[in-house]
Amino acid sequence: MTVAECAKLLGSKDGILLLTHKNPDGDTVMSAAALCRALRRKNKKAYLYHNPQITKKMLPFVDKLFAPESFVPKYIVSVDIATENLFPAGFDGRVDLAIDHHPSNSHFAAAELIEAERSACGEIVQKLIVSLTGKLTKTEATLLYIALTTDTGAFQYANTDEQTFRSAAELVHAGADAHAVMLHFFRKTSLSRLKLEGMIYSGLHVYHEGKLVIATVTLEMMRTAEATEDDCDDLAGLSGRAEDALMNVTIRELSDGSSKISVRSAPGVSSLAVCAAFGGGGHELASGCTIQASPEKAEKLLLDVIDELCGAQL
Questions:
Q1: What's the pTM?
Q2: What is the DSSP letter of 110?
Q3: What would be the CATH architecture of the domain defined by 191-313?
Q4: Which residues, 6+ apart, have CB-to-CB distance to 53 below 8 Å?
Q5: How high does pLDDT run on average in the chain?
Q6: What residue spans in the chain does CATH classification 3.90.1640.10 cover?
Q7: Span 218-267, pLDDT tens digits
Q8: What percentage of the chain carries pLDDT values higher than 70?
Protein backbone atom coordinates (compact mmCIF):
# COMPACT_ATOMS: atom_id res chain seq x y z
CA MET A 1 0.00 0.00 0.00
CA THR A 2 1.01 3.64 -0.30
CA VAL A 3 1.91 5.92 2.59
CA ALA A 4 -1.43 7.72 2.28
CA GLU A 5 -3.34 4.43 2.30
CA CYS A 6 -1.40 3.28 5.35
CA ALA A 7 -2.12 6.54 7.17
CA LYS A 8 -5.82 6.15 6.43
CA LEU A 9 -5.73 2.55 7.70
CA LEU A 10 -3.99 3.49 10.95
CA GLY A 11 -6.39 6.37 11.38
CA SER A 12 -9.23 3.86 11.52
CA LYS A 13 -7.59 1.68 14.20
CA ASP A 14 -7.13 1.89 17.95
CA GLY A 15 -5.54 -0.21 20.66
CA ILE A 16 -2.32 -0.38 18.64
CA LEU A 17 0.79 -2.32 19.69
CA LEU A 18 4.07 -1.56 17.90
CA LEU A 19 6.73 -4.27 17.60
CA THR A 20 10.49 -3.80 17.31
CA HIS A 21 12.82 -6.55 16.16
CA LYS A 22 15.08 -8.93 18.04
CA ASN A 23 18.48 -7.42 18.91
CA PRO A 24 16.95 -4.00 18.25
CA ASP A 25 18.86 -1.17 16.61
CA GLY A 26 18.12 2.53 16.52
CA ASP A 27 16.01 2.31 13.39
CA THR A 28 13.43 -0.16 14.69
CA VAL A 29 13.22 1.36 18.20
CA MET A 30 13.11 5.03 17.31
CA SER A 31 10.85 4.61 14.28
CA ALA A 32 8.36 2.72 16.42
CA ALA A 33 8.64 5.30 19.21
CA ALA A 34 8.03 8.21 16.83
CA LEU A 35 5.01 6.49 15.30
CA CYS A 36 3.67 5.67 18.77
CA ARG A 37 3.86 9.32 19.80
CA ALA A 38 2.20 10.45 16.57
CA LEU A 39 -0.65 7.97 17.05
CA ARG A 40 -1.19 9.27 20.57
CA ARG A 41 -1.44 12.80 19.15
CA LYS A 42 -4.32 11.43 17.09
CA ASN A 43 -5.94 10.30 20.37
CA LYS A 44 -5.13 6.66 19.67
CA LYS A 45 -4.28 4.22 22.44
CA ALA A 46 -0.83 3.08 21.29
CA TYR A 47 2.11 1.40 23.00
CA LEU A 48 5.43 -0.23 22.25
CA TYR A 49 5.86 -3.93 22.91
CA HIS A 50 8.29 -4.21 25.83
CA ASN A 51 11.26 -5.63 23.95
CA PRO A 52 13.64 -6.82 26.69
CA GLN A 53 16.70 -6.32 24.48
CA ILE A 54 16.41 -2.56 24.09
CA THR A 55 19.72 -1.20 25.34
CA LYS A 56 20.38 1.27 28.11
CA LYS A 57 21.50 3.87 25.58
CA MET A 58 18.11 3.79 23.84
CA LEU A 59 15.89 3.17 26.86
CA PRO A 60 15.45 6.81 27.98
CA PHE A 61 13.86 7.63 24.62
CA VAL A 62 11.17 4.93 24.89
CA ASP A 63 10.69 3.80 28.49
CA LYS A 64 7.43 5.74 28.91
CA LEU A 65 5.90 4.18 25.81
CA PHE A 66 5.85 0.50 26.82
CA ALA A 67 2.52 -1.29 27.06
CA PRO A 68 1.29 -2.11 30.56
CA GLU A 69 0.64 -5.77 31.32
CA SER A 70 -3.11 -5.09 31.31
CA PHE A 71 -3.08 -3.80 27.72
CA VAL A 72 -4.86 -6.03 25.21
CA PRO A 73 -3.96 -4.91 21.67
CA LYS A 74 -6.54 -4.76 18.92
CA TYR A 75 -4.11 -4.03 16.09
CA ILE A 76 -0.45 -5.05 15.87
CA VAL A 77 2.11 -3.22 13.75
CA SER A 78 5.68 -4.35 13.15
CA VAL A 79 8.30 -1.70 12.43
CA ASP A 80 11.52 -2.57 10.56
CA ILE A 81 10.98 -6.34 10.92
CA ALA A 82 11.79 -8.43 7.85
CA THR A 83 10.85 -11.96 8.94
CA GLU A 84 9.02 -13.79 11.71
CA ASN A 85 12.26 -15.09 13.21
CA LEU A 86 13.11 -11.49 14.11
CA PHE A 87 10.06 -11.01 16.33
CA PRO A 88 11.08 -9.79 19.80
CA ALA A 89 11.46 -12.27 22.63
CA GLY A 90 8.13 -13.35 24.07
CA PHE A 91 5.99 -12.36 21.07
CA ASP A 92 4.39 -15.05 18.94
CA GLY A 93 1.13 -13.50 17.79
CA ARG A 94 -0.23 -12.22 14.50
CA VAL A 95 0.90 -9.03 12.79
CA ASP A 96 -1.76 -6.91 11.12
CA LEU A 97 0.54 -4.39 9.44
CA ALA A 98 4.25 -4.44 8.57
CA ILE A 99 6.15 -1.20 7.96
CA ASP A 100 9.55 -2.07 6.56
CA HIS A 101 12.37 -1.23 4.15
CA HIS A 102 13.95 -4.67 3.75
CA PRO A 103 13.73 -6.19 0.26
CA SER A 104 13.88 -9.61 1.93
CA ASN A 105 10.62 -9.04 3.82
CA SER A 106 8.81 -12.40 4.00
CA HIS A 107 5.31 -10.85 3.73
CA PHE A 108 4.12 -12.26 7.04
CA ALA A 109 1.67 -9.46 7.80
CA ALA A 110 -1.93 -9.08 6.66
CA ALA A 111 -1.11 -5.64 5.22
CA GLU A 112 2.21 -3.98 4.49
CA LEU A 113 3.91 -0.71 3.70
CA ILE A 114 7.29 -1.68 2.25
CA GLU A 115 9.66 0.71 0.51
CA ALA A 116 12.84 -1.26 -0.12
CA GLU A 117 14.60 1.71 -1.70
CA ARG A 118 14.68 3.62 1.59
CA SER A 119 17.93 3.71 3.55
CA ALA A 120 16.09 3.42 6.88
CA CYS A 121 12.61 2.52 8.04
CA GLY A 122 12.62 5.91 9.75
CA GLU A 123 12.29 7.56 6.32
CA ILE A 124 9.04 5.70 5.73
CA VAL A 125 7.69 6.48 9.19
CA GLN A 126 8.63 10.13 8.68
CA LYS A 127 6.37 10.36 5.63
CA LEU A 128 3.68 8.31 7.36
CA ILE A 129 3.52 10.62 10.37
CA VAL A 130 3.24 13.70 8.15
CA SER A 131 0.45 12.03 6.19
CA LEU A 132 -1.28 10.95 9.39
CA THR A 133 -0.98 14.15 11.44
CA GLY A 134 0.14 16.92 9.10
CA LYS A 135 3.51 17.54 10.76
CA LEU A 136 6.25 16.19 13.00
CA THR A 137 6.86 17.33 16.56
CA LYS A 138 10.41 18.13 17.69
CA THR A 139 10.53 14.94 19.74
CA GLU A 140 9.36 12.80 16.82
CA ALA A 141 11.88 14.49 14.54
CA THR A 142 14.71 13.72 16.96
CA LEU A 143 13.64 10.09 17.28
CA LEU A 144 13.56 9.71 13.50
CA TYR A 145 16.93 11.44 13.16
CA ILE A 146 18.33 8.75 15.48
CA ALA A 147 16.69 6.09 13.30
CA LEU A 148 18.17 7.56 10.14
CA THR A 149 21.69 8.14 11.43
CA THR A 150 22.07 4.80 13.19
CA ASP A 151 20.95 2.85 10.11
CA THR A 152 23.32 4.75 7.81
CA GLY A 153 26.30 4.91 10.19
CA ALA A 154 25.91 8.68 10.42
CA PHE A 155 25.59 8.85 6.62
CA GLN A 156 28.73 6.76 5.99
CA TYR A 157 27.18 3.54 4.63
CA ALA A 158 26.48 2.77 0.99
CA ASN A 159 22.72 2.92 1.59
CA THR A 160 23.00 6.71 2.01
CA ASP A 161 21.61 8.56 -0.99
CA GLU A 162 20.10 11.89 -1.99
CA GLN A 163 16.79 11.06 -0.36
CA THR A 164 18.57 10.23 2.90
CA PHE A 165 19.99 13.74 3.10
CA ARG A 166 16.65 15.27 2.11
CA SER A 167 14.96 13.35 4.93
CA ALA A 168 17.65 14.41 7.39
CA ALA A 169 17.31 18.06 6.38
CA GLU A 170 13.54 17.88 6.84
CA LEU A 171 13.98 16.37 10.29
CA VAL A 172 16.40 19.10 11.37
CA HIS A 173 13.98 21.71 9.99
CA ALA A 174 11.25 20.09 12.11
CA GLY A 175 13.38 20.50 15.24
CA ALA A 176 15.54 17.38 15.50
CA ASP A 177 18.47 17.95 17.88
CA ALA A 178 21.17 16.69 15.51
CA HIS A 179 24.08 17.70 17.75
CA ALA A 180 22.72 15.85 20.79
CA VAL A 181 22.06 12.74 18.68
CA MET A 182 25.59 12.69 17.28
CA LEU A 183 27.12 13.21 20.72
CA HIS A 184 25.03 10.50 22.40
CA PHE A 185 25.20 7.82 19.70
CA PHE A 186 28.45 8.46 17.81
CA ARG A 187 30.94 10.61 19.70
CA LYS A 188 30.84 9.23 23.24
CA THR A 189 31.28 5.61 24.28
CA SER A 190 32.19 3.54 27.34
CA LEU A 191 35.67 2.40 28.30
CA SER A 192 34.42 -1.18 28.00
CA ARG A 193 33.48 -0.54 24.37
CA LEU A 194 36.91 0.90 23.66
CA LYS A 195 38.58 -2.17 25.20
CA LEU A 196 36.33 -4.47 23.18
CA GLU A 197 37.11 -2.64 19.96
CA GLY A 198 40.82 -3.04 20.64
CA MET A 199 40.44 -6.81 20.96
CA ILE A 200 38.30 -6.97 17.81
CA TYR A 201 40.83 -5.05 15.74
CA SER A 202 43.79 -7.06 17.02
CA GLY A 203 42.05 -10.34 16.15
CA LEU A 204 40.94 -9.60 12.58
CA HIS A 205 41.27 -12.39 10.00
CA VAL A 206 42.07 -11.24 6.47
CA TYR A 207 41.40 -13.16 3.25
CA HIS A 208 41.49 -12.53 -0.51
CA GLU A 209 44.41 -10.12 -0.20
CA GLY A 210 42.52 -7.91 2.22
CA LYS A 211 39.26 -7.76 0.30
CA LEU A 212 37.51 -9.98 2.89
CA VAL A 213 37.91 -9.15 6.58
CA ILE A 214 36.35 -11.22 9.37
CA ALA A 215 36.01 -10.08 12.98
CA THR A 216 35.04 -12.30 15.89
CA VAL A 217 33.48 -11.29 19.20
CA THR A 218 33.55 -14.10 21.74
CA LEU A 219 31.90 -14.34 25.13
CA GLU A 220 35.37 -14.38 26.67
CA MET A 221 36.19 -11.07 24.96
CA MET A 222 32.97 -9.60 26.37
CA ARG A 223 33.90 -10.76 29.86
CA THR A 224 37.46 -9.46 29.62
CA ALA A 225 36.29 -6.04 28.47
CA GLU A 226 33.48 -6.09 31.06
CA ALA A 227 31.19 -5.25 28.16
CA THR A 228 27.39 -5.59 28.03
CA GLU A 229 24.82 -5.33 25.26
CA ASP A 230 24.93 -1.58 25.77
CA ASP A 231 28.49 -1.67 24.41
CA CYS A 232 27.67 -3.60 21.24
CA ASP A 233 25.96 -1.09 18.95
CA ASP A 234 27.14 -1.32 15.35
CA LEU A 235 29.97 -3.78 15.90
CA ALA A 236 29.28 -4.96 12.36
CA GLY A 237 30.82 -1.88 10.84
CA LEU A 238 34.21 -1.99 12.56
CA SER A 239 36.07 -4.46 10.35
CA GLY A 240 34.83 -2.68 7.24
CA ARG A 241 37.22 0.18 8.01
CA ALA A 242 40.08 -1.83 6.53
CA GLU A 243 41.04 0.14 3.42
CA ASP A 244 40.92 -2.74 0.91
CA ALA A 245 37.84 -4.50 2.30
CA LEU A 246 35.02 -5.18 -0.15
CA MET A 247 33.22 -7.47 2.28
CA ASN A 248 33.46 -7.61 6.06
CA VAL A 249 31.91 -10.15 8.39
CA THR A 250 31.35 -9.97 12.13
CA ILE A 251 30.83 -13.25 13.98
CA ARG A 252 29.44 -12.87 17.47
CA GLU A 253 29.32 -15.82 19.83
CA LEU A 254 25.98 -16.22 21.63
CA SER A 255 25.33 -17.86 24.98
CA ASP A 256 23.35 -20.73 23.43
CA GLY A 257 26.36 -21.86 21.40
CA SER A 258 25.28 -20.31 18.11
CA SER A 259 26.89 -17.42 16.23
CA LYS A 260 25.21 -14.21 15.11
CA ILE A 261 26.53 -13.16 11.71
CA SER A 262 26.56 -9.64 10.27
CA VAL A 263 27.81 -9.11 6.72
CA ARG A 264 28.53 -5.77 5.07
CA SER A 265 29.80 -5.26 1.52
CA ALA A 266 30.63 -2.78 -1.21
CA PRO A 267 28.42 -2.37 -4.30
CA GLY A 268 28.77 -5.36 -6.59
CA VAL A 269 29.33 -7.84 -3.76
CA SER A 270 26.18 -9.36 -2.24
CA SER A 271 25.90 -9.60 1.53
CA LEU A 272 22.33 -10.76 1.06
CA ALA A 273 23.31 -13.80 -1.01
CA VAL A 274 25.72 -14.97 1.70
CA CYS A 275 23.25 -14.60 4.55
CA ALA A 276 20.38 -16.08 2.55
CA ALA A 277 22.43 -19.27 2.22
CA PHE A 278 22.07 -19.63 6.00
CA GLY A 279 18.41 -18.65 6.17
CA GLY A 280 19.04 -14.98 6.89
CA GLY A 281 18.18 -11.79 5.06
CA GLY A 282 18.40 -8.02 4.96
CA HIS A 283 19.73 -5.78 2.23
CA GLU A 284 22.03 -6.37 -0.72
CA LEU A 285 24.91 -4.61 1.04
CA ALA A 286 24.03 -5.29 4.70
CA SER A 287 22.53 -8.55 5.90
CA GLY A 288 22.55 -10.95 8.81
CA CYS A 289 21.88 -14.52 9.84
CA THR A 290 22.45 -17.00 12.65
CA ILE A 291 24.61 -20.12 12.33
CA GLN A 292 24.19 -22.93 14.82
CA ALA A 293 27.91 -23.35 15.39
CA SER A 294 30.86 -21.94 17.31
CA PRO A 295 32.59 -18.86 15.88
CA GLU A 296 35.47 -21.01 14.60
CA LYS A 297 33.19 -23.41 12.74
CA ALA A 298 30.93 -20.58 11.57
CA GLU A 299 33.93 -18.85 10.00
CA LYS A 300 34.84 -21.96 8.03
CA LEU A 301 31.25 -22.37 6.82
CA LEU A 302 31.09 -18.72 5.82
CA LEU A 303 34.37 -18.87 3.93
CA ASP A 304 33.09 -21.76 1.82
CA VAL A 305 29.88 -19.91 0.95
CA ILE A 306 31.63 -16.59 0.29
CA ASP A 307 34.16 -18.27 -1.98
CA GLU A 308 31.36 -19.97 -3.90
CA LEU A 309 29.02 -16.99 -4.21
CA CYS A 310 31.34 -13.99 -4.17
CA GLY A 311 34.78 -15.34 -4.96
CA ALA A 312 34.80 -13.82 -8.42
CA GLN A 313 34.16 -10.35 -6.99
CA LEU A 314 36.81 -10.57 -4.27
A1: 0.85
A2: S
A3: Roll (3.10)
A4: 22, 23, 24, 88, 89, 229
A5: 96
A6: 3-186
A7: 999 999 999 998 899 889 989 999 999 999 999 999 999 999 999 999 99
A8: 100
